[in-house]
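for the writeup, i need someone to sanity check this before i put it in the appendix. the sequnce is what the collaborator sent (i think, or maybe the updated version? ugh). structure was predicted straight from it, no edits. if anything looks off just tell me and ill rerun, i have time this weekend
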Amino acid sequence: MLTDEYRYKILKILEANPEISQRDLARELNISLGRVNFCLKALIEKGLLKATNFKNSHNKLAYMYLLTPSGIEEKSAITARFLKIKMQEYAALEAEIEQLRHEALQANKQQLNLGLTKQGVRV
């Protein structure tokens, strides 16, 4: 299954570098070459990408991946959804960090009070 995250990342990378090889794309995404091939085929079948042949400098046949107008629209929509999710994750992480800071401050106060009590100082 092609998730929004991979669809977004693939479209973003291909928009910036349409001549990237599947092997380099797999390396950049940290996924298998087979999965990249599957994802690219799915995006082509959906009409979001167009693959065209060209000869590269090593005289081998290669592909150039171009976003179609539908692909550009889809990338924009995915970007908005992806941004919303990431902003929610960020807000949740900020709240968790603030809670941990509060807990650490309370623990430090308790430790300080305990240390002073052990030294015979009343708090």
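The beta strands are 49-55, 61-67. Residues 9 and 29 are 8 Å apart (CA to CA).
thx in advance!!
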